TrEMBL record:
InterPro entries attached to this UniProt entry: D12N6_MeTrfase_N (IPR022749), DNA_Adenine_Mtase (IPR051537), SAM-dependent_MTases_sf (IPR029063), T1MK-like_N_sf (IPR038333)
Species this chain originates from: Tepidanaerobacter acetatoxydans (strain DSM 21804 / JCM 16047 / Re1)
Protein family per UniProt: Belongs to the N(4)/N(6)-methyltransferase family.
Pfam families, A to Z: HsdM_N
PANTHER family: SLR6095 PROTEIN (PTHR42933), TYPE I RESTRICTION ENZYME MJAVIII METHYLASE SUBUNIT (PTHR42933:SF3)
Location of the N6 adenine-specific DNA methyltransferase N-terminal domain: 20-125
Keyword tags: Methyltransferase, Restriction system, S-adenosyl-L-methionine, Transferase
GO BP annotations, alphabetical order: DNA restriction-modification system; methylation
EC number: 2.1.1.72
Name used for this protein in its record: site-specific DNA-methyltransferase (adenine-specific)
Catalytic function, reaction form: a 2'-deoxyadenosine in DNA + S-adenosyl-L-methionine = an N(6)-methyl-2'-deoxyadenosine in DNA + S-adenosyl-L-homocysteine + H(+)
Domain of life of the source: Bacteria
GO molecular function: site-specific DNA-methyltransferase (adenine-specific) activity
Length: 127
């Protein structure tokens, strides 16, 4: 019985450490944004990933993933000095194709004040 209790405590500590590290990473990634702005950036990226995984290359699907409007295109921007502008264009292509402008185009991935400038922005947005 003592062994089981100790194991649970260790696992609890590991979970706590993991949560702490995840929050620390999120704080680092969000830079000058408050949590609600960061949420928009994360949710838009997740939406693009989900839509790409589910509908990319599938005819007659609920949503259309156009050329230059997929998560794969976002990943290709890794390390690119124009990553913010590129992500905005990719999201806009997807939004235009599916009548989602103003819905998924809420986050500006090229905002220097919120995401930093130069290498800082590139590092923050690169996958």
């Amino acid at each position: 019985m003592v062994k089981i209790l100790r194991r649970r405590k260790v696992n609890g500590n590991k979970k706590s450490d993991l949560y702490s590290k995840l929050w620390q990473s999120c704080d680092e990634l969000r830079g000058g944004m408050d949590a609600s702005q960061y949420k928009d950036c994360v949710l838009v990226r997740l939406f693009v990933k989900y839509v790409t995984d589910k509908y990319y290359g599938k005819p007659d699907s609920l949503l259309v993933v156009p050329d230059g409007g997929s998560f794969h295109d976002m990943v290709k921007l890794k390390g690119n000095s124009e990553i913010g502008d590129g992500m905005n264009k990719i999201i806009h292509r997807l939004a235009e194709e599916n009548d989602l402008v103003g819905i998924i185009t809420v986050a500006d991935f090229n905002d220097d004040d919120k995401l930093g400038k130069g290498k800082e922005k590139v590092d923050r947005l690169s996958f």
